[in-house]
Amino acid sequence: MLPFHRRRERGREERVNQKWDATSPSTTEPKSKRFGRFVLDWIRVSWKDVLALAILGAASQAIYSAPVVSVRTFPITFTQSGDIVYPQFAYPYRGWIISPMASGLISVLIPIGIIALAQIRIRSFWDMNNGILGVLYAVVIGTLFQVIIKTLIGGFRPYWLDVCKPDISRAASHNTTQLNGVGFQQIMYTVDVCTNPDENALKTAMSSFPSGHSTAAFAGYVFLFLWMNAKLKVWANYRSSFYWLALLFAPILGATLMACALTIDQAHNWYDILVGSLIGTVSAFAAYRCLYAAVWDWRYNHIPLKNREALDYAAAALAPEYMERAVWVRKLGWGRRKKVRSSAPASGAGLGRSPRSSTAYATRHARMPSPRQAQPGVAYPDSAHGRVSGQHARSVRGEEMV
Questions:
Q1: Hey, how many other C-beta atoms are within 10 angstroms of the C-beta on 330?
Q2: Which residues form the Phosphatidic acid phosphatase type 2/haloperoxidase domain (predicted)?
Q3: What is the rounded CA–CA span in Å between residue 396 and residue 348?
Q4: Terminus-to-terminus CA distance in the chain, angstroms?
C-alpha cells in the first residue's frame, strides 16, 4: 500500500498517460459523444486565447489603417545643378515583389501546415494545438508591436520621392506643419509639398520603419525553427544526422529570403529589415516558451504545456512517458516505436511482442545504454516503475520502445 502522497502522484501520472497516449484503448462510449466532449473541453480551455488573438489582430489592423502620426522632413534641392540630397529616397517605385497580404499568409500558413502534417507521425493533439497557437501568438504580437512603431515613428521608403513628386512652389501655400523650407540652407520640406493626390500611397511610402514583412516572416519561421529543433532533437544528448541540421535551417533561410527580397524592389531600407527581423525573432522566442516547457533545453523543449496542469520537470527529465511523445525523431530512446504483433507473447514479458525483436533490441541496448539508463539520478514517474522492477525493468522498458 503506497502512502497517500505517492498514490496521488501515481494517479496523476496515469491520468497524464491516458490523455497523451494515442494508443490507449477506446471505451464503449460513442466516438461522436467523446469528440463532442473533447471539443467543448478545448473551447473551455482555449476560448480566452482565441478571443485575445482576434482582438489584438483587429487592433493591429485598425492601427495600421490609421494616419501616420509623425511629421518627417526630407531634403530637396532643385538648384542650378539639379542635385537631390539623400538620393537613397529617389529610387523608382516598382511595386511589391511580395504583397503585405501574401507575406502574412506565407508566414502563417506554411509553418501551421508543417506542424499539422507532422502530427501524422507525432500524433499529439496538444502539440499541434500549441504549435498552431504559437505561430499565431508570435505573428500577432510581432505585428502589433511593429504597426504601433510604424504609425507613431514611421520613415521614408527608398522610393519616397518618386511617389511624393514634390513641388517646392507649394511650400508657401501648403504649409500646415510650418516645417517647409527649414534647416540648413532651407532645403528641408514635409509631405505638404507632395503633388501625388493618392493619400494611401503617400502614407505607405512614409511608413517604412520597421518592416512588417520581416516581422511576420521571422515571427512565423523562427517559431517553426524552434519547434523543428525540439521535434528532431538536433541539439540533444546524441550526435544528430547532418541532414536534420540542414533541414532545421530551412525556415531561417526562407525568412531571410522573404526579408531581403524587399531590397530588390527598394521597398525598405536595410535598417527597416533588421529591426523588423529582430521584433519577429523576439516574438517567436517568447511565444515558444509560453507554450512549451523550454526553448533550448533538449530534455523538455518538445513538451507542450497545459494551462490546467503543471509540468513536473523532475519527473519529465528523460522519462519514457515524455521521451516517447511529441517528437519526430526515432533514435536512442526518443520517439514512439511500432509495436511488433505476435500470436505468441514473449516468454516472461507478457507484452505481446516477438521474442526475436525483444532480444535484438535488448542486445543493441546492452551494447549502447539508452539515455535513461545513463541517468541514474533521474527520478522517473511512478507509473513507469510500477510496471517493472530490478534488472527486468531495463529489458522491458526497451521492449516498450520496439
A1: 14
A2: 133-288
A3: 10
A4: 32
* Residues 211/259, Cβ–Cβ less than 8 Å: yes
Cα–Cα dist 42/50, whole Å:
11
Report yes or no: 88 and 269 within 8 Å, Cβ to Cβ: yes
Q: Decide: helix, strand or coil at residue 328.
A: coil
Q: What percent of the chain has pLDDT over 90?
A: 37
What is d(CA 15, CA 306) in angstroms, rounded to the nearest whole number?
14
Place of cell 513538451: 303
Q: Which residue, 91, 87, 60, 72, is CA-closest to 267?
A: 91
Q: How many CA atoms lie within 13 A of 58 on its CB side?
A: 5
Q: Is the dihedral of CA 111, 116, 117, 118 positive or negative?
A: positive
- Are 389 and 282 members of one domain? no
Determine the structural domain holding residue 355 and report its residue range: 316-400
| Residue 392 sits in the same domain as residue 338 | yes
In angstroms, the CA 188 to CA 73 distance is: 6
Q: Is the dihedral of CA 15, 19, 24, 30 positive or negative?
A: positive
Torsion of CA 173, 175, 179, 183, to 10 degrees: -10
Give how far Cα 191 sits from Cα of 70, 105, 148, 172, 179, Å: 11, 32, 21, 13, 10
Q: How many residues comprise the chain?
A: 402
Q: Encode pLDDT of 2-41 as tens digits.
A: 454 444 555 555 555 555 454 444 456 777 777 788 788 8
Residue 332: its pLDDT value, please?
A: 84
Identify whether 249 is part of a domain: yes
- Whether residue 109 is found in the same domain as residue 243: yes
Instruction: Specify whether the CB–CB gap between 304 and 126 falls below 8 A.
Output: yes
* Whole-structure pTM value: 0.75
Instruction: Of 339, 130, 91, 364, give the one whose Cα is nearest residue 231.
Output: 130
Contact 333, 372 (CB under 8 A): yes
235 residue type, one letter: W
Number of domains in the chain: 2
Is residue 325 located within the same domain as residue 274? no
